[in-house]
Records
---
Amino acid sequence: MSSLKLDSNGDLDITNNSFNLVIREEEVEQKIKTVLRTIRGECYLTPSKGVPILTEVMGKNKNLNLIESLYKNEIISIKSVESLDKFNLLVNDNRSMNISANVNGNIQINEEVS
């Protein structure tokens, strides 16, 4: 299976007027990063997809266990993710979070979510 490749800004990666593709581990990694950045309600056709950032993540005194669970569930919901072997959520002072995960035994994810 393959997917269209996205650049670091989340835009389609086009080289020499051609779309680039990702496969295997790179495809899984890209899917996870896309899911982690998706805010619930922003996708017109599937408004239930994404993390409920506006209601459950943002604000003071939020439940970190709940937030961690929300992100883990989003990762696990991806069909090509067979196992979530390691997960770590770190809340930064600058109102962002670092998420690191190891999936399918050999795919390492490090993503800043703001």
---
Amino acid sequence: MLKIRVALPQRVDELDLANRMLSQSAPEAVLESGNVQQVVSEEQLERLRNTLDEVLVKPELIAYLVDIVRETRQHESVLVGAGPRATQALLLASRANAAIDGRDFVTPDDIRTLANGILEHRLILRPEFEIEGTDPLSVVRNILDKVPVPR
């Protein structure tokens, strides 16, 4: 649904990770032992999911979001653009972002903040643009600059 860039760990952290993989604290070993600590109850999770249903997305913002995704299919440097599932992912993620920020409404900034992570990995660029150094992230940024933000 969403690409999140994670920096490589420092050497000391990577050594710790490698050593943990050889011990009983390896993620697989912890899962097998059943020693996983619950952080959210089923009721809390259900309540959190229902919260998203209460987050309003105005029609003009839905149109804005759709226009951004559709522009990935028309951009000159894109061979294969994002599909309707990208629209769904961006809509859901925007609502979640608003809820996390304590709002019951989506803003253009919610959409713009999440567009890179949702669209970037869904684009296949034309080879001639890739050779010239164009990357999917710059294409998404270009699209965000091009599509008018609703007022």
---
Amino acid sequence: MIQSMPHFVQNLTLANPDRHFVGIMRRMMSKGSNLGDITGLLVILEAEAVVMLVLVLAVNRNRKTSE
């Protein structure tokens, strides 16, 4: 559980996409949440996906220029 971790480690888990995905799934399965209830977590998950895509594209571009 995240609540049992030290405070600084809890903050590090905010960058982990799994934390947000599990939060979405937990809300949908146990509470029966709708799209409005999980919008905040979805936005965070989408932002992390965009950052990952930009990093992958940057690595691929750098690999092509360094060859």
---
Amino acid sequence: MPSGLFQATSIPVLEQAVNFGQARHNVLAGNIANVDTPGYRARDLSVSIFQEQLKGALEARRMDSTGGSDPITGEDNPLYMPDAFQTILRHDDGKVTLEQQVAELTKNQMQYNTALAIMTQQFRLLEAAISEKA
């Protein structure tokens, strides 16, 4: 299979969105689990910083598109962000509220499900193109 097959699709971007959604879900679930813990500070992954990093990676990918194709994963790929989640973790000194955390968890789940649905559709399109059933 050619290494650039996935590069022409949105799959690498969707992969990063799914990974971020999963990591954020774990953090928000931890907040909900500790809602009654005295002195607990809510944690979250910054969506805006993730979006900025992803935008930068997409712009770098566009710049590199004139050269050779990068592998899907690996340090040469501008969409590869191995420590991205550690750099965008933030702590909230405010009080942890169950309603706020459940709302954020629900919103995150919807974004995660949307990214998965689009990724599934991309794979179906690729499968149809490969098997010539399109």
